[in-house]
Amino acid sequence: MDSKLAKAINEQIVKELYSSYLYLSMSAYFAAQGLDGFSHWMQMQAQEEIIHAMIFFNFMNNRNSRVVLGAIDQPDIDFDSVGDVFEKTLAHEKKVTKSINDLYNIAEGVNDNAAKIKLQWFISEQIEEEKNPSDVLVKLSLVKNDSSAILFIDKDMATRLIPVMPVLN
Fold first, then answer.
1. CA atoms of 167 and 55, how far apart (whole Å)
2. CATH number of the domain that 55 lies in?
3. What's the N-to-C CA distance of the chain in angstroms?
4. What is the count of structural domains for the chain?
5. Is 36 a member of any domain?
6. Residue 30: inside a domain
7. Which residues touch 126 (CB under 8 Å, ≥6 apart)?
8. Cα–Cα distance, 147 to 4 (Å, whole number)
9. pLDDT in tens, the chain (169 residues)
10. What b/e readout covers 20-35, taking b as 16+ CB neighbours within 10 angstroms?
11. 164 belongs to a structural domain
12. Concatenated DSSP letters for 61-79?
C-alpha cells in the first residue's frame, strides 16, 4: 500500500476511536442527567465507531500494511443541553465525512482500487451517520424545552439496537 494512504488510514483509525470516545463521553453526560435512553443511544453509537475503526484496522492488516495507533484526545465532557449534544454530534460526523472523502481522494490519487472499494462503503455509511443526529435535532426543535416530550424521546432512544455491520475484514 502506498505510504501516504497507509498513513492517512492509520490517522482515520484514531479518528474513529476518538469518535467512540466522544460518544461515550456524551453517554456519560446523559446518564448523569437521568436520560438513560439518550445514554443508551450514544453507547450504541460508540460501539458502531469501534466497528468502523476495526474495519480499517483489518483492512490494513489484510494488505500487509502496518497499523500504527496514535493517541486519542480527551473528548468534551460538558454540554449545555440535549440539543447541544446532537448539534455537536452532527458537526463531528460532518468532519468524519470530510475525512472519509479526503481518504477516497488519496486512494484515487495513488490508484488503489481496493481502498476505493472499501471507502465507498464508508461514504454511504456517512449519509446515515449525518442523518441520525439531524433527525434527533428535528424532533428536539419540535418539542423545544418541553421536558415531558424530551422524556418521551428519551424512551424512544432506548430502543436502538446494537449495530450490525458488514464482515470486519
1. 8
2. 1.20.1260.10
3. 16
4. 1
5. yes
6. yes
7. 93, 96, 97, 100
8. 50
9. 999 999 999 999 999 999 999 999 999 999 999 999 999 999 999 999 999 999 999 999 999 999 999 999 999 999 999 999 999 999 999 999 999 999 999 999 999 999 999 999 999 999 999 999 999 999 999 999 899 999 999 999 999 988 776 666 6
10. bbbbbbbbebbeeeeb
11. no
12. HHTT--------PPPP---
Chain CA centroid to CA 12, Å: 11
**Residue 34 domain boundaries:** 3-69+78-157
Cell of 76: 468534551
41-44 contact pairs (CB < 8 A, 24+): 41/157, 41/158, 41/160, 42/85, 44/160, 44/161, 44/162, 44/163
**Cell numbers 492509520 correspond to what residue?**
10
Enumerate residues 6+ apart whose C-beta is below 8 A from 90. Answer: 130, 133, 134, 137
Query: Is residue 74 exposed (0-12), middle (13-18) or buried (19+ Cβ within 10 Å)?
Result: exposed
φ and ψ at residue 108, rounded to 5 degrees: -65, -40
d(C-alpha 56, C-alpha 15), whole Å: 11
